[in-house]
Amino acid sequence: MELNEYQRMAQRTAGAGGRAHERRLMVAALGLAGEAGEFANLVKKLTAHKHFITNAELADELGDVLWYLAEAATVCGLDLDVIAYRNIEKLKERYPKGFDPERSRNRD
Fold first, then answer.
1. How far apart are CA 2 and CA 66, in angstroms?
2. I need a labelling partner for 13 at 20 to 30 A (CA). Which of 71, 87, 93, 100 fits?
3. pLDDT per residue over 42-74, tens digit each?
4. Would 103 be classed as within a structural domain?
């Protein structure tokens, strides 16, 4: 599935009808932070508390993060495909030969 296709399909469950732009953006931002926190909490339980966490559980939380990311992009009038492309281009410029700890520490 392409990112833009996912973004369009996710909008079916956004329930945005009539909500103001600012409210949709606020809900998307808070939802994104909350779901990222839920993912982080599972990783904490896995690594620090030695709980058994399945990849399916991690994938479910990452899917929720993706949903809120798609909603935020839609509210801002952005396409996920374009966001992904621009991010890769930025990373290629920052790390032309792949990740380098020295370049990471001395970024301008």
1. 13
2. 87
3. 999 999 999 999 999 999 999 999 999 999 999
4. no
